[in-house]
Amino acid sequence: MRAYDPRFRTPRVQLVFTGFMGPDLMVSDSVLVIGIDYFMGSKAKYRPDVYAYQLWRYTPQALVPQMLFIASEPYVKSDPKDRTLLAEMINYGKGYLFAQTMLPQTPDSLLIGYTGKQLAETEIAQDLVWGHFIDEKLLYETNPNKKIRYLGDRPQTPEIGPRCPGSIGRWLGWKIVRYYQDNNPDVSLKELMTNTNARQILEASKYRGQTEQ
What we know:
Blueprint: E1 12-16, E2 25-27, E3 31-35, H1 60-71, H2 85-102, H3 108-112, H4 116-124, H5 126-135, H6 144-151, H7 168-183, H8 189-194, H9 198-205
Parallel strand pairs: 1-3
Antiparallel strand pairs: 2-3
Helix pairs in contact: 1-2, 2-7, 2-9, 7-9
């Protein structure tokens, strides 16, 4: 983190047993509170009362990637006037890229919560995902009820298909941002994080649903 932000100060870490009555994870610039009973993993006697598809985030391996994603929030700059789905997708993508850069050996699955099979299938079918966003004119959609279908925490995205995982807009935003980074090597991570022009990032990424660069 200090390599990115020399002013960064390591927050104080506080482990608490919440009895599943308090927050699972809180990150600020001064303190990191971890509800340790949430993150005991699959062998724990008691597990958080969440849906099965959400349990991935309550494993020891997923703890640090989630902390880094949350820690990215102060660095991800956005245009408050841009309420489009694309802008929110790009912001998620920046957060995932930030965490990925800080933890380069971390599997994508631990960052976004897809299984290996879901990731592989989504990669193969990303032209269909992209085609759906274009055909339905979703990129510049501002209706919150429509945006949540593609950004919200869901087991699937049935609007695209029964095998399409949830939060597909977050995954697509991450894909766009990664293509932007690959196609603009002279742009630093900090410059990308502070770029508030979502449309410019999309256009400069040259991403159009292709499976290979």
